[in-house]
Amino acid sequence: MKVQTQTAQKSSFLASIVRRQIFIPIAALLILAIFNFIVDPSFFKITLGHNSEGDPILSGNIISIIDYGSELAILAIGMTLVTAASRGQDISVGAAIAISGSVVLRVLCGTNSHPDTLQAPIIVAFLISCLVAMAFGAFNGTLVSVFKIQPMVATLILFTAGRSIAAWINNNELPVVSDRTFTYFGGYIPGIPIPTPFFIAIACFILTWLALKFTNLGLYVQSVGINEKTSRLNGLNPALIKFVTYVILGLCVAIAGFIKVSRLSTINYSVVAKDIEMDAILAVALGGNSLSGGKFNISASILGAYVIQFLTTTLYKFQVQSDALPAYKAVVVIALVVLSAPIVREKLAALFKKLRSPAKAESKN
Amino acid sequence: MPKTDMAVGKPRRHLLKGISDTNLLMSITIVVFILMYVFAIFGLGQGFLKAQTFFNMLNANAALIILACGMTLVMITGGIDISLGGMAALVSMCSAVFLDMHSGSVFGAIMISLGIGLAFGLVQGFLVAYLDIQPFIVTLAGMFFARGMTTIVNTNPFNVQNEAFVKLKETRIIIPGMGSINKRGDYIDAYIEIGVVIALICVAALFVFLKWTKTGRSFYAVGGNKQSALMLGVNVKRTTFLAYLMCGILGGIGGFVYFMHVGSGSASHATGAEMNAIASSIIGGTMLTGGVGNIIGTFFGVLSLALIQNIVSSVGLDQAWWTGITNASMLCIFLIVQSIIIARRKKANLAATKPTAAKGVKT
């Protein structure tokens, strides 16, 4: 009898871990890590080297994961809030990143596309790009909250027009920034061996955590996402809350765009952040958040973003071409989504019960 | 004796009251299209008077028409399918490889295209209808898979040299009597490609299917309200599955028509086709929430997008970014107009059903 209660307690503890939402990306991360460890333990090697300027930098697969996954993580924060409140996805983030990056370059380079010095302080360029990105976020938010258009359809507009607008801002030229301090944000600050985007992602996560802890943002967003009519009857303003989530996503877009432009010190309108909206939505789904709104977990989404980047890096290591990458991502996504579908979970649980009960019946006999 | 209080009073005789949501939105699209064309003829002159301009719009967009029809079917049931562009690219590449590298027949290539479309439709339909997974995620994975497989099948783009296929591609169906005189004074017949005939057949068949068959009506029922459809006795799961299956098959057909139009296989074919299909469906009056939609509207939606691109380039704004901006503005205007009209009709319906017991029944 004692043994039975002990095993019952153990299984309920395990069950309580498995049931938590953040378990899904952690499980995916563990599977990927174990797979890589078995195939090639040197995957996790980190070396301390020097870059071309003579500064010490860390390099290795893990470093590249946390480096390139940071933009996706920042976007995942905004996308989680938007998905949770408006029960739909914003597919225009790639185009919005193009616009925001284009604005940064326009402010820094002025009308000359290859200037020798910065035309304005970097912080001014960043703030202006934040305003522009938030304005476009407000545009999307208005369409969704005032005109009650479906989020995916409303953001289709900016998706179609965004890169064209980005090209128009700079008159279809490709300005190049030649200032070295600009590259610090997308690369390495001299003396710090860990890439800067990772610190920016951590800063965004801390800001979001503080906002969720000390304001009612999380509560209101979840409430509006779960049941809009009830929220309105309870005194919330669903339109305003949805609008605010889109503006927050605009801010995330501005930060991600700034990092992306700082990596290359230039921009390529049709290629920058291509398909990042799909990756962002995947990150939200991988974090166990429901794509039809409601409860959300930001940490799970951020973990999901890094899992996607982990998967990408693993596939690159196996020398999969970048064009063929999406096929593998698709298989992983389908496997994950099928396993976490409620119907499949019910069937698996019933199957486990069946497997366990004949064993119990035997032990009783 | 006062009028019985079941009567709502004198109903406001509104011209558009008897028309359904679907038909109203479709009529707006057709009217706007005709207005734009008339504007183009009078404002931009010569080129638009030629019938061939219209036929060229059909020629270039035959594949998009078929893909948009598939998208409309799925959107009517309340779902979405963003794998259509990837499917078209995969179908083109597989057919191209089959024709050139395995010296197959054109018939074999058609079978392969239909097979790929069917496979996508089966898997996506099963996952969405029976496992109850969000259609966006399933079809997003489908799109990723298709685009990735296109590169895996063959890395480099290439033109197809197979003779039978090239002959098929170059076939022109001449429309008598609508030709034009070119600069040298020769009379050139107006022509359409085979793909246009296939597209028109698809549009007609799907129109009949949606309007006059029970299964077609059940699409609207499932899209309008799943619970109500379930209680009506409609097999919601099977209907949703059928919608995705048909969309997959249409994706295969559309992919082959696209292949016939471009004559090559490439991983960058049909990029953005699914978004164009969604935009065309919306402009044609299909709502993403489901239950509202019309194939004829989608047909005119595709033509409207093509026409506006033609107008924009004729006016002289031919820089690359104007296409994106005009398409987006058109979509934006249509979305806002649709949402306003639907909101007002809902309000009018609600007001019309208010009981008048409170109004002046003096006892």
TrEMBL record, chain B:
<feature type="transmembrane region" description="Helical">
    <location>
        <begin position="282"/>
        <end position="308"/>
    </location>
</feature>
<feature type="transmembrane region" description="Helical">
    <location>
        <begin position="57"/>
        <end position="76"/>
    </location>
</feature>
<feature type="transmembrane region" description="Helical">
    <location>
        <begin position="320"/>
        <end position="343"/>
    </location>
</feature>
<dbReference type="GO" id="GO:0022857">
    <property type="term" value="F:transmembrane transporter activity"/>
</dbReference>
<feature type="transmembrane region" description="Helical">
    <location>
        <begin position="190"/>
        <end position="210"/>
    </location>
</feature>
<keyword id="KW-0472">Membrane</keyword>
<feature type="transmembrane region" description="Helical">
    <location>
        <begin position="106"/>
        <end position="127"/>
    </location>
</feature>
<feature type="transmembrane region" description="Helical">
    <location>
        <begin position="133"/>
        <end position="153"/>
    </location>
</feature>
<protein>
    <submittedName>
        <fullName>Simple sugar transport system permease protein</fullName>
    </submittedName>
</protein>
<keyword id="KW-1133">Transmembrane helix</keyword>
<feature type="transmembrane region" description="Helical">
    <location>
        <begin position="24"/>
        <end position="45"/>
    </location>
</feature>
<dbReference type="Pfam" id="PF02653">
    <property type="entry name" value="BPD_transp_2"/>
</dbReference>
<feature type="transmembrane region" description="Helical">
    <location>
        <begin position="241"/>
        <end position="261"/>
    </location>
</feature>
<keyword id="KW-1003">Cell membrane</keyword>
<dbReference type="GO" id="GO:0005886">
    <property type="term" value="C:plasma membrane"/>
</dbReference>
<keyword id="KW-0762">Sugar transport</keyword>
<keyword id="KW-0812">Transmembrane</keyword>
<keyword id="KW-0813">Transport</keyword>
<dbReference type="InterPro" id="IPR001851">
    <property type="entry name" value="ABC_transp_permease"/>
</dbReference>
